[in-house]
Design a protein that fits this description.
The chain is 33% helix and 17% strand. By secondary structure, it is α/β, with parallel strands linked by helices. The strands form 6 sheets. The protein has a 6-stranded parallel sheet, with helices on both faces. A hairpin with a 5-residue loop joins strand 19 and strand 20. Helix 1 packs across helix 7.
Length: 517
Amino acid sequence: MTDLVSVLVRELARDGVRQASGVVGAGNFLAVAGLIRHGVDYVAARHEGGAMAMADAYYRATGETAVCATTHGAGLSNSATALSEAVKHRSSVAVICGDAPTGGPRPFDMNTAGFADAIGARAVRVTAGEPVRRTAPRALALARDGDGPVMVCLASAACSGEGEPAVVSEPVRRPACQPAEVDAVLHRLATARRPLVLAGLGAWRSGAAKVLQDLAARVGGLLTTTAMATGLFGDSRWSIGVCGGFASPVAADLIGQADLEIEADATDAAIALLDAIDAAELVRTDWRDVAEPMLAGVGWAQEPYTDVSTTERIDPRTLSLELAGILPAERTVVLDGGHFIAWPFMYWSMPDPAATIFIGSAFQTIGLGFAGAVGAAAGRADRLTVVALGDGGALMGLADPGDADPFPSFGPCRCLRRCRLRIRGAPLRPRRGRSPDDRVPRHGFRRGGRRVRGPGRHGTHRRRPFGAARMVRGRHAGHAGTRLQDRSRGGRAIPGGACGRTRIGKRGDGRARDRQP
């Protein structure tokens, strides 16, 4: 097994893997040691789900393949939710995991192939030493082909090099753009008067942003993106921002006026369509000229609202606008799942889609935000990492913030309570009770923090390791807002985790501060 793993991790490092995260166990400790020995940066997580989310977020922030290392059995099953999220997002991650011996499973083993099939991941079972030199590059090629994570399963009894050869699936080849598809769009463009070009995450991954802007300019159309592609068109004057539920009222009005929506997430398709338009000599529409007076009002920051902040809570719209002016423009924003997610999308600009890591959206899960922020900070040290979470997701991910100690770019944390919602005009009122974050350990992270009660009373942002971690709670703008709580004064240090120490508060210190106005 030692020789097999040594060859595997050496080939992975040679093929460009630079970042790994995981939880060490009997099924993967040799792999982890080998990765570190070959110069791969490794983050020791506290939970396999967090390790998987870190690798996923690293890929989203950098576009580079990351490794998640888990042991066999329960170690692998712990990664199921985060791995499912990465599968549905089609993130480029190689999961190195322990597997049952070739002679048969042990009581604590699981059906790894069945597990991979259930969540839609591809699996590579490595059982013989010699083919690994070819298996590792091919496994990485699978992970990089755009179809999501690949599990590299290490059979624990393969050290002798005996057994069946490694099994590797072939990469999926996507068909090229067909002329009939281009002709169909060209026919619709000939009669369109208000075309709208919509770009998603695929356009970012394929590098199609520039050609899509050229396409919109050629037909006189406006530009918009999905939430996952926020920032794709930068500061283009013809971009109306995000479409869908996060669109501002002016943007939604313009989207409603469009009579043709063009979606092109592949560069070759956009180029083929642009060439066909030039060949057909289509006339440019005048929609840009008509819509230009409205474009100045695009964006939630331009929308007037009544500030409902009180002496105890701040309106989340006001808080979002204040933070937008404080946080640096070059930032990575990691969003957990939950009802609070509208505020960052509505009020914060993003430099490019890699700066928006909405982790949990593909699988509709929560609790991966803290871990995702660690992965994003590891991948983009040049940008301040900001994480926005709901109270439930923050509580689920409490094990992960301690893993951020090595990354100075890990910055503010904004934690919002569940919003009060309206569904088709009918209020949905959650059962009232003690706020969950009143039960959060108040001194567990060695981080600064403040309570925000109103605009202008949040102090000045200070960049330092893990920043001034802001734990915020709030409710929907129509009912009340948010507070920040200090969690880092005093206390003694105790060992905690693989990446440093955890600080706990002096008895009574946190309770006394909470009673202060």
